[in-house]
Structure formats: structure tokens, C-alpha cells
Queue: 2 jobs
Job 1
Amino acid sequence: MAAQVQEIPTKPFDGQKPGTSGLRKRVKVFQQEHYTENFIQAIFDSIAVQGSTLVIGGDGRYFSPETVQTILKIGSANGVSKFIVGKDAILSTPAASNIIRKYKATGGILLTASHNPGGPNADFGIKYNVSNGGPAPENVTNQIYEKTKTIKSYKILEAPPVDLSKIGEFTYGPTKVSIIDSVADYITLLESIFDFPLIKKFLDEHRSDFRVLFDGLHGVTGPYARALLVENFGLPESSIQNCVPSPDFGGGHPDPNLTYAHSLVEVVEKENIAFGAASDGDGDRNMIYGKGAFVTPSDSVAIIAHWADTIPYFKKGGVKGLARSMPTSKAIDLVAKKKGLEIFEVPTGWKFFGNLMDAGRLSICGEESFGTGSDHIREKDGIWAVVAWLNILAAANRDSPNKLIGINDLLNEFYSIYGRSFFSRYDYEEVPSEGANALVAHLNDALKSGSLNNTVHTSASTSTKYTVSGLYDFEYKDPIDHSVSKNQGQVITFSDGSRVVFRLSGTGSQGATVRMYVERYLGPEAGAAALSEPAADGLKSLIEVALEISKLKEFLGRDEPTVITVSLLFDTGLRIG
């Protein structure tokens, strides 16, 4: 008997507005009757669905398997011709971007809330990516949102569920369903980018003095790390940990920073591991961390750009341009200037990089929020960044037969050439929205009145004086599509070149997150001792002044941040409260 299509009456739900990262809410919100179905129908009402090919993937978090079946039911009923689905509903965000591009799909639906916790009482998300493999632009997400506000019914196809554990070709009513190996295509892509033989040779020769440890944080990247490090590079099983994806990420917070990736930090320090790395829930973020050596994301992308000609993909195709998100430190700007490359400062959100990549003007880019990537796909890519570092270290050691080059050596060499941007980020998570908005309003008032201009502020602990040279609200005009993005973060600049940025983040599902970014630059002429000072010491006075000017503690009602991310030589992230 032919599968039957039914039309189910429904009513709109408030607040189904997707951002760049899709629609993120608590699992229990998505579990409401009709809630998930409404949003999926709104996606299909907003794209050219008839005869389309769509990719389905995700990070395997709680509520994913049943949502895949919902997508199949509604998509088939709406005219999708073919679905390409990762085995067991697992497909990292970078791997999904690659699949969309490789198989020329119409787009993809990713079930992820990125680095946020999973489980029945935690977060879930649905994100739509377009045909270039990148996040849906605002004109698409706005259209989806408009559809959610007027929806009256959704279509479903009644058919038995697809077994997502079996690789192969299947039919689902009138629709073809291809269940694929989640890992294979992505490994093939990385083999075409990096010098795998060089990396393997280096790791083989230094098994005793250059140990590697990758921590998957129970997220989606575990199977990819196993395929790379164990199966391709021949490292022992002990080189990976927490690499079995879990619906609740092992009860942890799959965010690769010094606070939440403590499982990596502890083992690296205890066992003197030279190279450690971690990725997040959906695989688009990364952290590079070795014994006594933490690499800030701002430094990481700059160092990859500096060493780009050691990576075959860039040696063959050249580097077209470099970019960073506005809050990210200006280290990569210095590399661009030295190499004569275009540099772009964009708002936070990978879609802004995607426009530049599609126009052939950008090759390597990064965000301070542990996101690094290139134009090989249209998402940030955690595993790519890890292999880039291994490629660079292998190349550096090929040219250093008598001394083992490690993470600290690369950092110190970089600082000796370009100087150092001391950088730290303070995250205040799940704060009351009223307080967060009051903080923004306070800074906006100072911007309009000019009341902070040329004012002098003194650090209580060090007596260091800072003179405010300006305050502005970052605005970006896209050089490709000429769209304008306003209110992207408030920036206070100081006469010595330091700056502080304040941003409201929309990546959580509950309350507001306020992020404060602090940056102070020191030139290479300062010397090795000054350049290797712990960031917490180098930034202490500026942080005190930033908190005083912004009245942050008063508005947010918090004495301490939830997470502190600091830079190398040597600091630790703190979890407070």
C-alpha cells in the first residue's frame, strides 16, 4: 500500500526565531506537541523543496533520533526527492558542510546546539544550512521565522521508521534515503588538504617524546579522531579519550576551553603530554593545549596563517585573504600585513566568512570562541584545526633535526616576529536579560553623550592609568552583498592601543550571556621576558578599569564571571560559582 500523506492542523508557537546557529531551546520545549513539526514544516515552506536533496546530520544529542524520523516524515510529504543521512544520525557540522558541497545538495538540516550541554533537561537545536554548506543567511532564517508565525498545518507521511544504524540505500514513501558512513568523506577531504605522510612520519619518529591526546568530550568528533589518529596516523588507543558520542555528552559540557575541557587539561599536565586537543559537541570548535602551553584561539588562527605554506592545500592554491571576528585579537592582522594579504574584520557568525570565501577573497579565518577554519568548507572546523597544528609541527621539526619543536616554541617564535596580543575573555552566563540590557544601555548612553571620551581611569591594584580614546558600536558593511550588520558589539579603545569589547551572545537557550573581551598589544621589541608574562598579570589593570567603566558587576549582579579564558605562559581557566 502506498504511504499516506496527512495534513495535521496546528497553531503557531511564539519565539521560533532562528539565529545563525539555528533554533535553540531546552529539549522540553521541542518535545511539546507540534512544536518541532511546526519548525521543520516552516523550513520546508521556505526553500525550494520539490525534487530537492537534503543532508541530515547532528551531534547525536538527546532527542536527535526521533527528530530525524520527524524530518523524514515531513520532508517526504513535502516533496523532498532524496535524503542523505549520517549513520546513527551522527554527522559533525564540518562533515555535513562537506557532504552538502560534495554531493551538491540543496541544503542540510543539522540537529545540534553546538557546545551547549545535552540531555532531557538540557539543550537541543535545529539548524538549516544552504547549498554552499554554510549556515542559512538572514534572508532565509527570517523567512523561516515568518512562516512559523502564520503556520496552520504541517504535512506528514505515515511510513515505518528508517533504521538509521544500517548503511545503504532505502526508500521512504516516494523519497530515497541514503544512510552513509559519517566519517569516510570527511577523512578523504582532510587527506586532500594536509600532508598526511609527513604527519605520520613525525609522529612515528617521536612516539616517546611527543605524545598526543585528543579529548572528544563525548561529542560527535570521537569517531573522526579515531579514524585520523589511530587508523591513519597509527597512534595507540591511549591517544584518544571520551571519544564515544553520548546523548548527554557524558553528563558534561562539551565546550573545548580550559574550564569545561578539564578532563584533557588534567591528563596533559599529569602525564607531560606534548600535544593535547579537544573539540566540542558538534565538532566545529577546538582547543590546542600541551604541557604548560595553552594556545588562545586568536593566536592559533594567526599561527596557522603564518605557517600556511607548509600545508599542501595552501601551498598549491595560495592564501587569498585572512579574517577574524571583531572580538578576536588582532594577531592575525599583523600576519596579513607582513604577507601582503587582505584582512577582514567581521561580526561574530561564520556566515560572514562564507560570503568572502564564496567570492574568492578569503582562505583562513577564526573566532576567539575557539572556532578556526578555512575555505575548504563553509563552517568552522575543529578537527581541521587540530590536524593543521600537527602538520605545522611536523614541518617545523622536519627542519629542526637536533631540537624537538613544541607548541611553546612556535608561540615564542611568533611573538618574537609579530609581538603579542595579550587577550582574555570573561563570560557571564545565564544572567538576567534585564541586567544585560541595562549594561548595553549604559554604554550606549556614554556613546551618545561622549561622556567617556578622554577620561582617565586608574587601576586599583597597579595604579596603571588608562585614557579612553573612543567608544563605538561595531557595524559591518559586507563587501560582497553590501548588507549592513549593526549593533555587533560595543568597543572601548584606549590611547595605548588597548581595547575592551562587550557583546551579548545568543548561543544559549536560557537567560543572556554577556561576554567581555580584553586586549593589550606588546610589540616584539619588548623582549622575551615581557612577551612571556602570564596574560592574567599583563591584563589585570585593564580588566579592573573595564569593570569599573562598564559597571558590569552592578548591572549583572555577579562578582565573578562563569568562565575566564586567558592566554599562554601559563594561566588556567576558572569555573566560579
Note: The first helix runs from residue 27 to 30.
Job 2
Amino acid sequence: MDLLNPNCINSLSISTNNHQRSRECKNGASKSQIRRFSTTTTIRRSERFSVSNMAVTTASETSVNGGARTSRSSLVDKSSSAMELLDIERGVCVPFRKYTPETVRNKVLESRGSILSLASRGVEIVWNLGLYWSALTYDFLVGRDEEVVADRARQLRNLLCNLGPSFIKAGQVLANRPDIIREDYMSELCILQDDVPPFPNQVAFNIIEEELGRPLETVFTKISSQTIAAASLGQVYRATLRDTGEDVAIKVQRPQIEPIIYRDLFLFRTLASFLNGISLQKLGCNAELIVDEFGEKLLEELDYTLEARNIEDFLENFKDDPTVKIPRVYKQLSGSRVLVMEWIDGIRCTDPQAIKRAGIDIGGFLTVGVSAALRQLLEFGLFHGDPHPGNIFAMRDGRIAYVDFGNVAELSQQNKQILIDAVVHAVNEDYVEMANDFTRLGFLAKGTDVSPIVPALESIWQNSSGKGLSDFNFRSVTGQFNTLVYNYPIRIPERFSLVIRSLLTQEGICFTLKPDFKFLEVAYPYVAKRLLTDPNPALRERLIQVLFKDGVFQWKRLENLIVLAKENVAKMSSNPAIQVKSISKSLQVEKKLDLTDTIKDGARLFFTDEGIRRKLLLALTEDSKLHVQELVDVYRLVESDIDIPTVAVEVVRDLPTVVRDLALSWSDSILSDR
């Protein structure tokens, strides 16, 4: 990792239980986006690292070493550069990692016994994959490769299950990577689930006692004799705390799974080194980078202390949202292999009859779910990466509850802004810029000629949006997109494969509960409300881009945005979850669309930005007539939502700032003329 990266500012923090280091990027990461990793070094809260001091230290070390590099350091540099590429692409700087290729190599090769185990495992994998590859080759040679696709896809799924947890996880990743495998194989791998036979209860109870440091009966009055759920990496029990009588969920990691994962990751990366040429040609990146993405995420899932921090971040993000329930973590009872959480007594979100019997309005519940998902993606930049039906519940008061936070993904502030740019470019039908957005997000290598991709993007979007909201769904768009990425040198970054899977899974849940549900009919109002009310300068800029097309003000778009935004507020405020008296009074949801800040910012722009002022005046006098009726129509839409005295007070308060900005703008124009 390059410590001299100018995009990073170091900030150090300390927690009560673990010493943590975090680094925040200049592009504006939110609190939950700062990656936190445990270290064994005690760090003072006031301590800071100076980038310039690092430069001096590094330079002196280089001069002492005389630039000499051993073969080992060359390997480190090579693998580190791949990890740095991931950091740059994500816009997140990670000073301490659980995964690096060097860490994996050192753990696997630390003893003679582990080397023998590695060799044995390598023979097993090569033998099984070799047999499968031979079968594919035979099918191709005899010309029946297309006829037996379904059988071979099923055979691949069974093969991955038999090879163990690392390969099950790899199969789940491949099920969302149309840039790597064909769509028919993806469909089969989507069946691949984490449902595997549980390991013995006594083994699990021993692990819990080791983490607690005391007998089970001193902490719990009872614990379920059967697992509630079993997965490739761990399993879950239900228990009752002795001290408080609260029901909790206990997540226990499978015994001795970490050495298996490290061993398989080493073999994955070794195999990937032989496939770099093919990967570079097909995806525009080397295969080792894909393995590094996978390995980093897998090792994060193995550390339950990281999952506990993920839950804390979600709790912080949704602390003022009365429609979302996140379970509490009992950190004093948790460790790296055991996680104790609040028990969620909810209804599976795939059982519409049970939800109706509980008196929950399904339409309102789905609105809450879609809004929560969009907030995670576009507002927080920290989203649940595995929202399958077993991880989402409907609470009896109408709230949506999430569990299992081992697989979460982060989007930097820059990535979020580019996603919003892509939405704006789609609305404006600017397909060239949409293609450039793909490059900025890491789907295409820098310097790639996007001209062949532009017509394909245009075709996909027009085929999908041309049907209208009634027929639009993410699965149909994804199917067309899969064909695009398979035929062009497009690589889907791991975090965006999770975004795609998350959206598809949640859309599928929506269709299960309400077959005629229109995802975009909820998503559009949320985006409209964000564009109209969010004071973020970047979103203000995107709003202007949406309202002006080819320099012409779009009155109809403004009216549509207001109507959609008001619809979002109405749906959220009328949701059953908001009406429950048991919810804290401090958690409030707005009852009407608040445009005070938007009007204030608009007035400031009108007076200080000559370009905007000219465009607005042209909009009012377009086609040689005053567009008074359009202004009246807009005012009627927001009349009931605007408190004129409040807006007037806010504008007056902002007057000194407007005058200052106007003076600065005038002085800049005078100086530029000279």
C-alpha cells in the first residue's frame, strides 16, 4: 500500500474494547464508510500521522537500502499494487488489512505439515476440476456443448458444494458475475445456497464457552437444541440471557474453518496467476485482482468482530428512522468466532398471508423496504450485501428488520455521486456519458474505447424504459446487461456485483409479496425527494442537470419531480410503522415535503450565478412569451407544503451570505475582464 497516496488523510481512533485504526479519503466518506481494523498497538486519540513525515521516512529508507530489492519484495510490490488498485477504484484507503496475498502465503506455508496439507488439497482440487474441464472439452469436440449446458451447470454446482465452503462462496460470487461466466450457468449457481449440514451442537457449545471464558449455564438459562440456521461458515442458535431474560441469537463459526479458507485462497491465487493473460483480454484486469476482491470479502466474513462493527454502523445510520429495525449486539459476549445479537421476532418477508394476518399493509411495508435499500445505497454508502428472504423480516408493527451483517459493501462518496450521475445521464438519454460513467466506476479499464458500447447501452435502456413503469424490472435489464458484459471487456467490481444481487433479490421479494408491485414507482419518488431536498452541493448540481436539457428548462420535469417527491412523503408518513405508539416520539418522519432549503439555495444561485440566472430568465421568456402559467402550476403543487413566513425568514437570514457571494462573483468578473 502506498502510504504517500495524496488522496488519503489519516485519522486515528480508539474504542473501549479494540484499538482501531481508520483512514478516511478526501472524497468525503461518511462515518460508516471509514473502514476499521483491529491492531495490537495502543494509539493515543490525539495522535496524527503526517504525510510529509512519511515521505521523509520513506525517502531515507530508500537511500539506505540503495534501491535494492529482493525477489520477495518484488512479489510484495506486485501483489500490493493489485490491492492499491482496488483502493483507488473504490475511493477508500485501507491502512490495515485482514487479507493480503502475503498474509495468506505466510499462513499457509508456515509449517511442513501445512505444506503437505496444501499439496493434498491441491491434488484434490486439480483432480476434480480437471475431470470437469475434460468433460467440457469432450462436449466441445463432439459438438454437443450447447445441448448439455443444463447438465454441466448442475454438475458444476454439485462440484462446488462437494469442494467445501470456499468453493460454495466462490459459486455464490460467480452467480452474480456475468462478466466471468455465461448466464445459463449463473442461473444454476443462483440455486447454490448456504444451507449445509450443521456441525455437532457440543462442538458449537465448546466454541461458545471458549469465547466467553465461562460455562454456558452462567450466561444463558436455555439454548436451542437445534440450529436455527446453518451456513457454510457458521450456524445460529436461539438462547435466553440469564441476567435479563432477553432472547438472543448466537452465531457460531465452524471449527477449524480459517486454515481451510486460507489454504484455498492460496490455491485460488496460484491458479489465477496462470489465467492472467485470458483475464486481461476478456475483462481488462488480471485474474489475481478478482481473487483478491473475493479473498478480502471472505476473510472479513470470518471475523465476527467486524460484523459487530457493521451492525453498529447500521444502527448509527438508521437511529432516527422509525421504519427500520437493526438488532443490538452484545459485545461483551461476542468475539471473533461468536456473535451474540438481539433476537428478531419477525415474519419471513416471503409469507404474504402471515404479513396480512398481522395487520400489516403490504404496500406500505414494501415502500419502507425499497426506501431503506435506496438509503443504504445512495445516502449511507454502506449496504447489506446479502438481503435474501432469510435475512429480512417484517416486524408486527410494520417495520422492516435486517439480520446477518457479515456480507456488507461500501461505496465511496465519489461512487455514490457517479451512480447519481448515471441516473441523470439516463434521464437525459446521454448514453456516451453513461458509458463514461462505467469507466469511472471501474467496469471498464481506463482508456477503453467506449464507442462500441454506447449503442448497446442505448438499446438496453430504451427497450426497458420504453415499456414504462408497468413492465420495467431489474431482472429484464440485468439479463440484457449480462449479454453486454459477456461480449465486451467489462469487469463488474465486486461491490457492484453485490449491488446488482441486492437489488435483484429485493425486487424478487417484492414480487413474492405483491406480484404487480412496481419497484420504480417507489424508487423514483425517493430519488426525486433526494434531488429536491438534499442540501448536498453535489446533489444540487445534479438537480440542475436534470432540470436543464440542452440549455432549455424542463418545466414538466420539475412538476413530475415535485409530484413524485410528495408521493414518497405521503407513503412514508402513512405507513403503519409510523403510527405505532410504542415507537419513540423522538423518531419522526416528515409529514410534508420541506422545500425551504431548496428555495433558499435556488434564490442564492439566481443572484450569484450569472449562468443559472440567464437560463432561468430564458426559461421564463422562452418562445417570446412569459411562462407565467408554468410558474402558477408549480406553485399550486407546493402551496400546501411551503410555509411562506418560514421561507422568508430563512432567505433574510441568508441575505448576508448572498451579498458576500454576489460581491465575490462581481469582483471575479471584473478581474477576469481585465
Note: Residues 1-76 have pLDDT under 50 and may be disordered.
